[in-house]
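Could you join me in thinking about how sequence relates to backbone shape in a protein? To get us started, please write out a protein record for me. Would you write everything just below, so we can both look at the same thing?
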Amino acid sequence: MVDERDPPLLHPVLSLQMDPAPESRTGGGKGRASVVTGRLAQQQTVLAREARALYGASASLPTYAGRAHLLVKMFAEDSLAPSHTPDDLFGPLYGCQLVAPFHNGYVVEAELSALPRLARAIDNPPSFALQADISRVRTLEKFGTTERLRGRSVDDLWNAASEDEEGRLFVLWFAPFRDHNAQAALLRQIETMADRQLLLPTFTAVRLISGPGEAAETRPVTTPRQSSVARAMREYRNTGSGRATVRLTSRESLGHLVASGASYRIDPVRPIRVAAPGEGPEPGVLGDLTNAPIVAVVDGGLHAPSYTSAEAWRAPHFVSNAQADRRHGNGVSSLVVQGHAWNSNRPLPALSCRVGTVQALPDRNSNQRFDERQLIDYLAEVARAHPETRVWNISANQNAASLDPSDISVLGHEIGLLARTFGILPVISVGNTSSDNTTRPNPPADCEAAIVVGGREADGNGAPGNGCPACLPGPGPDGMMKPDLSWFSTLRMLGGVVATGSSYATPLISSLAAHTFAQLREPTPDLVKALLINAAERDEHDPRLGWGTPYQGHLPWTCAPGSVTLAWRAQLDPGTAYYWNDIPIPPELIRDGKLYGRARLTAVLRPLVSPLAGANYFASRLETSLTYANANGTDRTCLVGSMKESTLIEQDARKE
């Protein structure tokens, strides 16, 4: 007999167990149809002239083993699809190799002595493939100072960097050569600049304070003290890409580094900041949290004695108690644990969590220097020590004012790699507005693997309303649809104060994500991310609200009333179409023999990404649609999704 006092049965999200039917796509390659005949002759003249001019200016270009970087710009309106990549024209036959995507084009590694041969091929292209490439390339230029500085001046870059006792700190991205002789020559150049003290390596060794009293005792948890340049050089030899945090003593040193051509990109090291929530009364007694899921809170630590029972584990400190932003850490932790209890006048689910304390963020008034690579090494050790914790809350941001709109930040890129390596889901605040007029999410909110959280106000009934003007909008760089989700950004928290910022909306999403992990049989970060986005209310992405708020009275692992949700995962091979055929249709969705109702298709891709974290960051793209087979049994009609992403230009594809 069912006890009437029992809660009603919920309808869980269903797991689709069907195997896909793969079909290989036959690629036609670049044929006659790929040639833009109307501009072929004009572009032959333009590109041949530019190739010969570059050869004539070889002596003024920074070269390594006779090779230099050039910039190929495409006709953005019709030639940025992957199928139009100009790898036939800029290929080994003509002494070239594409090494990195760039804004509206590509960076090419070119053997300068082969440029006359390239010019002759442009004059008389022997194949349709070359003709297609020529007709779609707008210009061929040097990859120069403007590109390496991303349009900034040396003064702008210098002023944006964190100060150090002996200069300022920068992240140097090594120029991406593929030729081994060129790589060796570049590394010798960097060694020479270090020997001449034009650049000074920093030394990375994560030493964490251990013990409740924070005594002088320390213990290394990664590698012994090592030069950032030596480490980056080793990575460069092994992978062809390397990044080092370096100290430059003057603007002149920065200008010399840029002019050397040893860099692909230079970023100023920026401080990471949080906003303090204030002080006030302590909360009430916590209930039993023994079985509550855990959220790792990367913040200023948890210092409130009343929340001791909510702490599942505590990592050795990255910053000391004296330097940590204690009040912000307390406030964010309290919202992770029981945000609903602090904000009973808001429609929040009654979900409680435990926290794993990761004391890593300094107070804005401390003198703690910030090194992205050192922080990432530390977070990797914490992730390795606590594999049971799958959701990581990061309510802190760097200033993005000096970051090129097309570039992914160092911290956003590194946290993405960390998340994929350890199978964790970062939940990151989008950032708050400030006087510098930043109009894009603040790092690390440009992390592709993360759920990025924006803020929204409450309407007259206390429900989620408009976007919060105190929080930054999206989209993210390279067309990223950030923020992903949004929730209340004005909340009450530990201390009894009310504060506003994206930092405070983020713990609400983190708590919900942790419970979603706990409710699924075989959860993955991307599956949890997809379910939360699926539970949000918006059908179109909004630059402030994202896809909306993932709670409409039902939880993401349950189906909304009158609906059914199917979830599944798949591993896909490039160039292959996968069909899940004959999915059963609930009878409620059929009226008079026809489909009736609304459908939403949410797909989250685990992409290949560029190690250089620039334009065209995503090296893979996913086309999805919900279709039905027509009467002839061969053609398909799309109900949801356009399947145009492989031919549209990047920005239009993302909009579709």
Summary: The radius of gyration is 27 Å. The CA atoms of residues 535 and 551 lie 6 Å apart. Residues 1-9, 206-223, 275-283 have pLDDT under 50 and may be disordered. The chain is about 25% helix and 20% strand.
